[in-house]
Amino acid sequence: MIAILDYGSGNLRSAQRAFETSGKEVVITSDYDLALNAEGLVVPGVGAFAACMQGLIKVRGDQLVRERVAAKRPTLGICVGMQILFSRGIEHGDHAGVGMWDATVEKIDAPILPHMGWNTVRAAAGSALFAGVEDQSFYFVHSYAAKKAVGAMSSLSNHSEDFIAAVEDGALTATQFHPEKSSDAGLHLIKNWTQTL
To answer: Which of 11, 47, 117, 194 could be disulfide-bonded to 22 (CB atoms 3.0-4.6 Å)?
Structure first.
């Protein structure tokens, strides 16, 4: 069973439908024990970094992520759900994140923001997440991103400058793009992740 964490942020229904294509049961929940014990946990996120962190803390999601990673239970952050996994974000101030990776989420240095629409990802060599969809396009909507490579494996995209599009780091995986909005490539990537559960 895959749990999608409901903490007041994210397009939960479209994520649920996309992850159901894997053949797994998918539930939307804010129940700590259910999310902790699920085969896989998805942490979605839309909006601003600080608001997402506030919602996450209300359901003890920061503690939940740390506990799952310590137990080597697969966890996937999406969009701002990826950003809040870093140590800090500087969107509308300076805010602490969950601190799984020591890097700052900062504004992309580009003439046009948000970075919105389809963009290619340069998958890291040997990526399991991008197997079969290397160099495919995925759907992005964001103005902030991490730029420093972290974890075991970082894949990149570019919008006037390189930024981290995805991280694979043992049980913890994250994508800056929305796989649930990325058509066939996104569904293939979701299936790749669910096969690790």
So the answer is: 194
> Can 92 be counted among the known catalytic residues?
no
Contact status, residue 105 vs residue 95, Cβ threshold 8 Å: no
Number of domains in the chain: 1
| Catalytic position from the list 20, 52, 79, 106 | 79
Boundaries of domain holding 30: 2-194
Per-residue pLDDT tens, the chain, 197 aa: give them: 999 999 988 779 999 999 999 999 999 999 999 999 999 999 999 889 999 999 999 999 999 999 999 999 999 999 999 999 999 999 999 999 999 999 999 999 999 999 999 999 999 999 999 999 998 999 999 999 999 999 999 999 999 999 999 999 999 999 999 999 999 999 999 999 999 99
Residue 159, domain CATH: 3.40.50.880
Q: Annotated catalytic residue: which of 52, 67, 180, 188?
A: 180
Q: Active-site residue 95, yes or no?
A: no
Residue 60, classified by CB atoms within 10 Å of its CB into exposed (0-12), middle (13-18) or buried (19+), is middle
What's the sign of the alpha-carbon dihedral 130, 70, 59, 51? Answer: negative
